[in-house]
């Protein structure tokens, strides 16, 4: 659809929905923002401003039965809505930009079942309508477009649903767009391992504020936050100051290198879990929190996410 919208409206974009009896991965601009391999019913509600930038943003939904070449259970399903609301409006004016729904294609001989499909809302938001908020300043003609493709079955029987969300100027430019394209080899892994160990040390002994400067600035700008709201939005700073939360040691063995952002971002994962190895643990409450760290290389290595 096309939606009249402008950064000065301070919108918060959210991707929310649910998956059942399938493994789910959501990627924005080739960066995984959600991965759930439990196969259980799962609901999500993600604020995605920090991953959206000027130009065409690629949103990919990856669904699988959990095993290569395995068929989906008959009751597998996925749905998602792209929504936005004004940053300070906690009650009204939540607008659906579009919707995706999916179910497995029916087996041969059961064609009466619902086929897989996608749907993008086709209504134009009219600024002059008294029933909806003004989504752009007078005289502005910026269009936000979300184009959803039909689901595509992959050779391994998984399903990919691709879409593109176009944000015109003056939306922010991707901060790692000018970074170098990285190569997945031992040299890159050694460098990122060293950066991760330095990060872990500063989280444990202090001084992390400077290392996370780019990340803090990006989150603050993306969600229009005041300085008093920033630590709560980042999540981990308040936990570092609580004695009940302890930073766990990094795994002793080698970590797995992952490239994303079209090869311009790198992070390390614990091969045993497939997740970030930077973990805060509250044993008394049975709670844990993770810190995901992405690096890029410009003139130097920078922690950007």
Description:
Helices cover 15% and strands 33% of the residues. It is built from 5 helices and 18 strands. The relative contact order is 0.15. By secondary structure, the protein is α+β, with helices and mostly antiparallel strands. About 11% of the residues have low confidence. It starts with a strand and ends with a strand. The strands form 5 sheets. Strands 1, 3, 4, 6, 9, 10 and 11 form a 7-stranded antiparallel beta sheet that branches.
- Count of alpha and pi helical runs: 5
The overall pLDDT average reads 81
Task: Evaluate the radius of gyration.
Answer: 21 Å
What portion of residues belong to β-strands? 25-35%
Low-confidence stretches: 109-141
**What best-fitting shape do the alpha-carbon axes yield?**
globular
Would you tell me the structural class of the helices and strands?
A: alpha+beta
Quick one: how many beta strands? 18
- The H-and-E topology, N to C, reads as EEEEEEEEEEEHHHHHEEEEEEE
Calculate the terminal CA-CA distance, rounded to whole Å.
30 Å
Largest sheet: 7 strands, antiparallel
Q: What is the quaternary state of this protein?
A: single chain
Helicity level, as a percent range?
A: 10-25%
Q: Helix and strand layout, with pairings?
A:
Blueprint: E1 2-4, E2 11-20, E3 23-28, E4 31-36, E5 42-47, E6 55-64, E7 77-86, E8 95-102, E9 143-148, E10 152-153, E11 159-167, H1 186-205, H2 208-211, H3 213-222, H4 227-234, H5 236-240, E12 246-247, E13 256-260, E14 265-269, E15 279-282, E16 287-290, E17 295-297, E18 301-303
Antiparallel strand pairs: 1-9, 2-5, 2-7, 3-4, 3-6, 6-11, 7-8, 9-11, 10-11, 12-15, 13-14, 15-16, 17-18
């Amino acid at each position: 659809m096309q939606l009249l919208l402008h950064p000065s409206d301070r919108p918060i974009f959210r991707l929310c929905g649910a998956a059942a009896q399938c493994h789910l991965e959501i990627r924005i601009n080739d960066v995984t923002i959600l991965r759930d391999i439990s196969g259980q019913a799962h609901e999500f509600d993600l604020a995605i401003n920090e991953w959206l930038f000027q130009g065409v943003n690629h949103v990919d939904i990856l669904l699988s039965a959990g095993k290569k070449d395995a068929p989906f259970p008959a009751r597998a399903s996925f749905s998602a809505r792209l929504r936005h609301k004004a940053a300070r409006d906690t009650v009204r004016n939540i607008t659906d930009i579009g919707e995706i729904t999916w179910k497995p294609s029916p087996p041969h001989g059961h064609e009466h079942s619902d086929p897989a499909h996608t749907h993008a809302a086709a209504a134009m938001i009219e600024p002059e309508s008294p029933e909806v908020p003004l989504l752009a300043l007078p005289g502005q003609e910026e269009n936000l477009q979300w184009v959803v493709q039909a689901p595509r079955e992959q050779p391994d029987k998984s399903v990919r649903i691709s879409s593109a969300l176009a944000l015109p100027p003056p939306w922010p430019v991707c901060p790692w767009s000018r970074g170098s394209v990285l190569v997945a080899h031992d040299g890159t892994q050694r460098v990122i391992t060293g950066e991760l160990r330095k990060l872990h040390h500063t989280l444990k002994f202090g001084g992390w504020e400077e290392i996370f400067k780019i990340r803090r600035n990006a989150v603050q700008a993306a969600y229009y936050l005041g300085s008093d709201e920033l630590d709560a939005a980042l999540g981990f700073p308040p936990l570092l100051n609580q004695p009940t939360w302890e930073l766990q040691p990094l795994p002793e063995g080698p970590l797995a290198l992952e490239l994303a952002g079209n090869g311009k971002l790198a992070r390390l994962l614990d091969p045993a879990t497939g997740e970030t190895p930077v973990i805060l643990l509250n044993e008394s409450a049975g709670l844990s929190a993770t810190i995901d760290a992405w690096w890029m290389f410009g003139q130097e290595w920078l922690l950007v996410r």
